[in-house]
């Protein structure tokens, strides 16, 4: 990693923030319900999943709506962030070809947009807690801790996707499919213990499964993740981020020719 | 030399040609499985070396596709060169396709902020300059209009007004010296002259040869990605008019072949673009004829240094 490049990213922090906030505002500017979409969207998704899984499939997880909601919010931050990033450079080809600024600000700001949306969705969670008089366990204050690997993973995957999608234009479609499959392979609508042990250990190779389990443990089950889980998740997140950053820097230059 | 602000050494820019290129993963997989086809490449820039001094205004002319815009993007660090090195000193502001960074869904003010920051202007400085920018562009009453509803002239004015706030050390212009209607063209041209007076280095690509003659200190003729010649704007413009403009494939093949034979015989190498263009220019001007070429080559420094 070159410090010069990292410094230029730091110097552009207000541009990153402006891009992220502007993108967020644009999403809601031309809609009737405006900002409320950010709350309605997870609510609608939640309702559907709740009906299907608690009545039809008879899931017996306690506080199932909250379980679903927290998992959805965290997963959405990841899936939305990576999907938005995959298109962020291609969509702004004009500016990339006509001005010089570190291109990395584009995927970073897309990920930040996704995280800002996640914070709004958390308001829904808080509303739920209040409405249903749910007693949040004290360890719920540890939730921000799980956002660190979540951010590293989301950005680490977003960086190469954003450049690869310029070179191979179907990358974003492929990634969309992977993300949809990932939703069902991650313990969001179920808990991991519905599987036999050997399948569980395969599922837990996915760092997102750990992050979502942590959030469930923090907000619902009043548990703290095991040391092994913390080491594994942070380790994988940092590796994913470093690889993603390296791939981005490698492809950044060749990519521009293909815009 | 401390006052050199741009220095290019043996710059090449090679593109993979589009029609053979695979742009999806699917295509790549299919072609890799079938058999690899060698990809075709194209040199948009070949062996370009020159330097520019502080405060100088350099014109670049050449036929369509000669590599002018590509060269500007390399100078602005937007496109990395495939080979060679480039050094620049100071803040470079590209005036390439002005306004291409605008987002149609944002208002004029929002676009000024965004575009200004992308051009590297400090956040609080832009905020202060917004009224001035709108006034300059004469668009105060449209400040909250989305720019997708702007006419192309209004669009260009807003972009120009924002970009001139960036206080560049080096200004790189691709054909957009003045924008808008006649009155605004005059105004933007005057602004440009002001910037020029402030000892700003300017690189100016244009098809307007009169501009090159009256504004530039020096000019470069680009020919098919090669430097065809560098020097006094008068000579360069005349060379362009005489040799390149009328027929971009200036080299009548038979003539070129004969010159090529002389080069091989006398200098033991194929002719270079600068030499070739010069012979053609002088032949067309009636200064020399084909028969003079051997003696010209034999009198060249290169020949003397080989043969003592
Ligand atoms: N990204 C790219 N991929 C492949 N070829 C390219 C690319 N960009 C430019 N070229 C090719 O490089 C050559 C030079 O293009 P360039 O835009 O620099 O020409 P120009 O001198 O600016 O022409 P004009 O006077 O029309 O503006 C052209 O043949 C063009 O097709
Ligand atoms: Mg051009």
What does this structure look like?
The complex is a heterodimer of chains A (259) and B (308). In chain A, α3 (37-56) crosses α7 (105-131), α4 (64-86) packs antiparallel against α7 and α4 runs antiparallel to α11. Helix content of chain A is 77%, strand content 0%. Chain A is an all-alpha fold. Chain A has one domain (35-258). Chain B is an alpha/beta fold and 308 residues long. Chain B contains 12 helices and 9 strands. In chain B, the strands form 2 sheets. A 6-stranded mixed beta sheet of chain B has the order 5-6-7-3-8-9, sandwiched between helices. In chain B, α3 (108-118) packs across α4, α3 (108-118) packs across α5 (152-163) and α4 (123-137) packs across α5 (152-163). The longest helix of chain B is centred in the middle third of the chain and has 16 residues, at 182-197. In chain B, 38% of the residues are buried. The model of chain B has no long low-confidence stretch (mean pLDDT 86). The chains are: A mainly alpha (259), B alpha/beta (308). The A-B interface holds A 14-15, 18-19, 22, 26, 29-30, 94-101, 167-171, 174, 253, 256-258 and B 15-16, 21-26, 28, 73, 76-80, 92, 94, 96-97, 100-101, 103, 105-106, 110, 113-114, 117-120, 123. The structure holds adenosine-5'-triphosphate and magnesium ion (MG).
Task: Sum this structure up briefly.
The complex is a heterodimer of chains A (259) and B (308). Chain A is 77% helix and 0% strand.
Give me the strand/helix succession of chain A.
HHHHHHHHHHHH
- What is the global morphology of chain A? globular
The biggest beta sheet of chain A is recorded as: none
Helical content of chain A, roughly? Answer: over 70%
Distance between the termini of chain A: 25 Å
Share in helix of chain B:
40-55%
Q: Say how many strands of chain A there are.
A: 0
Biggest interface, CB < 8 A: A-B, 26 and 32 residues
Rg from alpha-carbon coordinates of chain B: 23 Å
The major sheet of chain B is characterized as: 6 strands, mixed
Give the overall shape of chain B.
Answer: globular
Give me the count of strands of chain B.
Answer: 9
Bound molecules: adenosine-5'-triphosphate, magnesium ion
Average pLDDT confidence of chain A is 90
- What's the oligomerization state? heterodimer
Specify the number of helices of chain A. Answer: 12
Strand proportion of chain B: 15-25%
Secondary structural class of chain A: mainly alpha
